[in-house]
Design goal:
The chain has 212 residues and is an alpha+beta fold. It has three helices and ten strands. Strands 3-4-10-5 form a four-stranded antiparallel β-sheet, with helices on both faces. Strands 7-6-8-9 form a four-stranded antiparallel β-sheet, with helices on one face. The N and C termini lie far apart (91 Å). Bound molecules: calcium ion. Calcium ion binds next to strand 9. This is Type-2 ice-structuring protein-like isoform X1.
Length: 212
């Protein structure tokens, strides 16, 4: 009598389970890599836009993506007119004409802007790069920005009304030398930092306005 031999399954249930788990991990990893890649590409695109400010095309970046349990939302307007440098929702412009602080502000207002307020070292470095790119011989020329303490000595305000929190004063500045320095110039001294200066001095300037 022939006793039928029980055919052994070629794949044990544990092995099937293991294969399914590995397959799922691969799919999840691939999706996350794709998401990370998309996010990286979008951020790279934003950086390139910011790094090529002159004649920058009008752009608005809006991105929603999911990384694991985190949802990342980015929406930054970089819609600046030709000749303006986008930075963090603002448009910056170097004006090479040498004017007093008040006349510089008046000139900015004629372009629906104000003398620039500066709120971070990244913004200051962006302004310095913009000046180098647009000044004669690519120099770090001194220029007016929108800070002054004209109303009360050593009480500083930005002309655009934003809070005066970040500063980049040089050593021993502001010193109100000869008791007549009430306006902020940048790229001063070896440190290319800030000092207070006589508001009637003639300087190039930096204007800023909100991106549309
Ligand atoms: Ca000074």
């Amino acid at each position: 009598m022939l006793i039928p031999v029980k055919k052994r399954s070629s794949v044990a249930p544990q092995e099937v389970t293991l294969v399914i788990i590995i397959f799922n991990i691969c799919i999840i990893s691939t999706m996350r890599m794709l998401t990370v890649t998309l996010l990286f590409c979008a951020m790279t695109g934003l950086t390139i836009t910011n790094g090529n400010p002159i004649n920058a095309p009008a752009k608005e970046l809006s991105l929603n993506t999911t990384l694991g349990k985190f949802t990342v939302s980015i929406s930054i307007s970089t819609n600046c007119p030709s000749g303006w440098t986008p930075f963090n929702g603002h448009c910056l412009r170097f004006v090479s004409s040498e004017l007093s602080w008040a006349k510089s502000q008046q000139n900015c207002q004629s372009m629906n802007a104000n003398l620039a307020s500066v709120h971070s070292i990244e913004e200051y470095h962006t302004i310095q790069r913009m000046i180098r790119q647009n000044s004669l011989f690519s120099r770090d020329v001194k220029a007016w920005i929108g800070g002054s303490d004209c109303q009360e000595e050593n009480t500083w305000f930005w002309i655009d009304g934003t809070p005066f929190l970040f500063t980049n004063w040089c050593d021993r500045e502001p010193d109100n030398r000869y008791s007549k320095q009430h306006c902020i110039q940048i790229n001063y001294g070896d440190g290319k930092c800030w000092s207070d200066a006589d508001c009637s001095s003639l300087r190039p300037s930096v204007c800023a306005k909100t991106a549309s």
